[in-house]
Amino acid sequence: MEKFLESYWQMRLEALKEQLEKNNFAVAVTQSAQECSRYFMEEMLPKLSPDSVSYGGSMTLGSTGLLDRLVELDSIRLIAPNAPGISPEEKIELRRQGLVVDLYLTGTNAVTEDGCLVNLDMIGNRVAALTFGPKKVVVFVGRNKIVSDLESAMYRIKDYAAPTNAMRLNCKTPCVKTSECTDCKSPGRICNTWTITEKSYPKERVTVVLINEDLGL
Fold first, then answer.
1. pTM for the full model?
2. What is the pLDDT of residues 78-104, one digit of tens each?
3. Order of strands, edge to edge, in the sheet holding 206-211?
4. Which of 30, 36, 168, 199 has the most CB atoms less than 10 A away?
């Protein structure tokens, strides 16, 4: 990365870190998905020492490779709702079990410059876990998720993140064909539940790991 771009993004991430900390989130800044993975495995995981871990669907989390590393650990029970070869009923049951784990891993659709996490979910397990249930939550955030304010966050999600995710998941929704949100009534609609997380409660229950790369949608 060019030096001036490094400086730009580092300043943006440090400013966001300060705002998130004011909102009672624990925060770390990492320079890449690879560094994020190392930081989590070597520094965060030993301190958190969870017996059980689950996760919500997140391309950013996937880019870190952490799920592949966690599944190899005998000391942790990994509840994997997206494991191949399981039925839709089993997936729902595993998502329910994931709401009472020691540690939950996920991404976010957007983060505002004043330190709020903004998400829009289909099933609701991801936003439910972020709000209440798991003892600790770690949210992995690429720099491309940063927006100026709540209005910009909601626009980003409905205008970009939702249609592209619908395409990625091969949903039968109008936006897959048009790339535009029509506030559809499709059975396969992925835009069902909004959450705005203004603060972490209790303090530092939620850790936000900022990553100095464009990751996810």
1. 0.97
2. 999 999 999 999 999 999 999 999 999
3. 26-30, 206-211, 136-142, 103-107, 52-55, 77-79
4. 36
